[in-house]
Amino acid sequence: MPKIIGRSLEEHRREVRSRVFDVLRGQLYERGFDAITLAGVAAEAGLGRTAMYNHFPDKESLLVAFVEDEATRYVERLKAAVATADTPVEKLSTFVRLQLRVLAEYHLPPGTALASALAPAAYRRISAHADPITGQLREILAEGVPEEDPELLIPMITAALGSRQVVDVPPERLDDAIEGAVRFVLRAVGMRDDREKPEN
């Protein structure tokens, strides 16, 4: 019988998932999605292959569970961060920064590649977690640029923030790249950052 981690089966399940997700997070950053295997994740997490398969029968189920867990925590983090911002400019800037930080941290394949790698039902489950994030952006735009249609701006912004080229820079240049993207998005939607120096 596999060794139980924690004081109950539920605690054991949480501990195993946490350990596996920590390993997967690191491997996504170091290797990318395509190079990851269940056996490799299990070995680094200190789990037997049977125990791993009991929790995640295949790579697809592991990825879906991981994305759902990460997305839930990210949405909470995003809402909390945006709530501390006073103006639409600050809210949109916060949104852009967090989105790009996450993009820099995780090496999931882009949407089209991910869709082809997963079964349709699994991809729909993952995609559904973008809805609260899109909703947050919609609220920011409605407040900041009420004269514009958010449904036209949202795909433009998400496309700009979804390109890995923005964050695929040396670590010492990442902050500058992100701040450049913040300025780009603000200008694109017609918001002005009062901290910027006026052009002569």
Automatic annotation (TrEMBL):
<protein>
    <submittedName>
        <fullName>TetR family transcriptional regulator</fullName>
    </submittedName>
</protein>
<keyword id="KW-0804">Transcription</keyword>
<dbReference type="GO" id="GO:0000976">
    <property type="term" value="F:transcription cis-regulatory region binding"/>
</dbReference>
<feature type="domain" description="HTH tetR-type">
    <location>
        <begin position="14"/>
        <end position="74"/>
    </location>
</feature>
<dbReference type="InterPro" id="IPR023772">
    <property type="entry name" value="DNA-bd_HTH_TetR-type_CS"/>
</dbReference>
<dbReference type="GO" id="GO:0003700">
    <property type="term" value="F:DNA-binding transcription factor activity"/>
</dbReference>
<dbReference type="InterPro" id="IPR050109">
    <property type="entry name" value="HTH-type_TetR-like_transc_reg"/>
</dbReference>
<feature type="DNA-binding region" description="H-T-H motif">
    <location>
        <begin position="37"/>
        <end position="56"/>
    </location>
</feature>
<dbReference type="InterPro" id="IPR036271">
    <property type="entry name" value="Tet_transcr_reg_TetR-rel_C_sf"/>
</dbReference>
<dbReference type="InterPro" id="IPR009057">
    <property type="entry name" value="Homeodomain-like_sf"/>
</dbReference>
<keyword id="KW-0805">Transcription regulation</keyword>
<dbReference type="Pfam" id="PF00440">
    <property type="entry name" value="TetR_N"/>
</dbReference>
<keyword id="KW-0238">DNA-binding</keyword>
<dbReference type="InterPro" id="IPR001647">
    <property type="entry name" value="HTH_TetR"/>
</dbReference>
